[in-house]
Structure formats: structure tokens, C-alpha cells
């Protein structure tokens, strides 16, 4: 109801292979729906639980609200052992056991640590 009306058709194979998607514009959360009919090209109507239907049926979808939280630092541990980094250099190799952040509305690969001295 709140999206773009699709007036074309698709097959069960399209559904099985994940080619059909529902997209929310993110403006509102809650219940949304769309109407559809089903045909094999030979028979009028389609069966739902053994009952012949000739009118469109409704697919209901609940759209989860987007979370607009700030990123969270979940691990912040100081390294313990100085490591040889080669060429007479020593330091620490950071890992997610020492430093890790998450964000409920972003992929972790899009989080940036900004060094401020």
C-alpha cells in the first residue's frame, strides 16, 4: 500500500530463487500488505485451504522499525604483550578481542575509528 504498485507478474520459480523482494522506504513501521491473484493460465481462480478464490488475496507484512542508535563500543581492552613487527619495529596488532564496536543499523565494516591525539 505504501510502496510502488507492481502490475506485472512473477512465477513460483521467481519466489523459490529469491528474485521477488518487498522493500520498505523506511518511512513508517507497522503492518503493510499487498494483494495478488494466482493463475495457471487455464483455470479460473485458485484454491486456499480447499476453497476456490476468484478475488485477490492479501499478503500481510510487518515492517520492523528502523533503529537509529549510535554505534556502541563493546570491547576496549589494552594490549598486553609487545610484539615484534619486523625491521626492528615493535608494537601491537589490534584484534576484535581488544577493540570491537557494533551498530544496530549499520554493517560493522562501515564503522570507522578516528584517531584523535
Automatic annotation (TrEMBL):
Origin organism lineage: Eukaryota, Metazoa, Spiralia, Lophotrochozoa, Mollusca
GO biological process, one term: anatomical structure morphogenesis
This protein's name: Laminin G domain-containing protein
Source species, domain of life: Eukaryota
UniProt signal peptide: none
Amino acid at each position: 500500500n505504501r510502496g510502488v504498485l507492481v502490475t506485472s507478474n512473477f512465477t513460483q520459480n521467481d519466489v523459490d530463487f529469491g528474485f521477488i523482494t518487498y522493500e520498505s522506504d523506511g518511512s513508517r513501521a507497522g503492518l503493510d500488505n499487498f494483494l495478488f491473484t494466482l493463475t495457471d493460465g487455464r483455470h479460473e481462480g485458485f484454491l486456499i485451504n480447499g476453497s476456490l478464490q476468484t478475488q485477490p488475496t492479501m499478503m500481510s507484512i510487518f515492517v520492523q522499525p528502523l533503529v537509529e542508535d549510535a554505534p556502541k563500543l563493546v570491547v576496549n581492552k589494552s594490549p598486553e604483550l609487545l610484539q615484534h613487527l619486523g625491521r626492528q619495529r615493535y608494537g601491537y596488532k589490534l584484534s576484535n578481542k581488544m577493540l570491537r564496536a557494533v551498530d544496530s543499523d549499520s554493517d560493522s565494516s562501515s564503522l570507522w575509528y578516528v584517531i584523535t591525539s
